[in-house]
Amino acid sequence: MSIASILTKLPLCMIGAVAMVATITPASHATTIAIGASRDTTIYQNNNNSNGTGVGMFVGNNGMNSTRRALTYFDIAGNLPTGASITDVQLTLFLGQVAGSGGTPGRGDQTPRNISLSRVTNSWGEGTSGPVPPSATIGGTGEGFSANVGDATWNARFYDPVNPVLWGTPGGDFAATPSATITVSQNINAGYTWGSTAALVADVQGWLDNPSGNFGWLLRSESENTPQSFRAFWTSNATDPTLRPQLKITYAEPVPEPGTILGSLTALSIGAAVKQKFKKQQA
């Protein structure tokens, strides 16, 4: 007996079940996760230094009128399911030092500074530069440390004393339009959050869909030409885990295609009908 002939003789209840399947739309639900930075560093305009293992990353200008920029990277594809749809992105960094404060809360630059996040467009290395032995404090690291092979510097994406891999533009390769900008004051150890924007969501969605294009963000101060105006944030190397960078992502999980569910449930309905008819024939 053919499937078609069986379908024509299905009980009304079974026909109703199959018809009902056709109206099912798979539902998705929102999930929020928080992930830490995989790597971060500072690049310094006035020297060939870096700070891959340091606990602070500097953004802005020091007391000698030299610019600093920070790089940070999060492993998106390694933490989210393939096919997820990103709906909200928030980056929180914790302030560790203010220019001119010497690390003392309430001192130093008291003018709030606008700091932007821009999508980096080329790969870069964290390397092993940093204080030896490692330091738990940011103070004394503002000039960075001699770059080791693989470190990012102002001129090089991957430093090498003989064959460095250079940035296309000194100071980093990044999107011309920032993905988000916030004002950072001077509250030491306070968290500052770049709230979700369409551009931040697009950045993270793009990195999930195309992991090979994920080069993280560059942090840049709008006052980077103003002496003694920098902000230093705690990095992923901070000894206190609550002060490390945190990226909060909300996403809708991928769901099966409606056709897949329809086919499976229809097959189950037909199978049940065939089994029921066979039993009647054997009775």
Helix content: 10-25%
Q: Helix-strand pattern, N to C?
A: HHEEEEEEEEEEEEHEEEH
> Mean pLDDT, as a whole number?
87
Give the overall shape: globular
Structural class category: alpha+beta
Give the distance, in angstroms, between the N- and C-terminal Cα atoms: 18 Å
Q: Summarize the biggest pleated sheet.
A: 11 strands, antiparallel
Strand fraction equals: 25-35%
Helix segment tally: 4
Q: Low-confidence parts, pLDDT < 50 over ≥5 residues? A: 12-25, 264-271
For the secondary structure, the number of strands is 15
Write the layout of secondary structure elements.
Elements (H helix, E strand, L loop, with lengths): L2 H6 L3 H10 L8 E7 L2 E6 L4 E2 L5 E6 L5 E7 L11 E14 L14 E7 L25 E2 L9 E3 L6 E2 L13 E5 L6 E4 L3 H12 L7 E5 L9 E4 L11 E7 L5 H25 L1
Antiparallel strand pairs: 1-15, 2-5, 3-8, 4-5, 4-14, 5-13, 6-12, 6-14, 6-15, 7-11, 7-13, 9-10
Helix pairs in contact: 2-4
Tell me what the structure shows.
This protein has 283 residues and is of the alpha+beta class. It is built from four helices and 15 strands. The protein has helices at 3-8, 12-21, 198-209, 258-282; strands at 30-36, 39-44, 49-50, 56-61, 67-73, 85-98, 113-119, 145-146, 156-158, 165-166, 180-184, 191-194, 217-221, 231-234, 246-252. Strands 1, 2, 4, 5, 6, 7, 11, 12, 13, 14 and 15 form an eleven-stranded antiparallel beta sheet that branches. It has a two-stranded antiparallel ribbon with strand order 3-8. A hairpin with a 5-residue loop joins strand 4 and strand 5 (67-73). Helix 2 runs antiparallel to helix 4 (258-282). The longest helix has 25 residues, at 258-282. It is globular. The two termini are 18 Å apart. Residues 12-25 and 264-271 have low confidence and may be disordered.
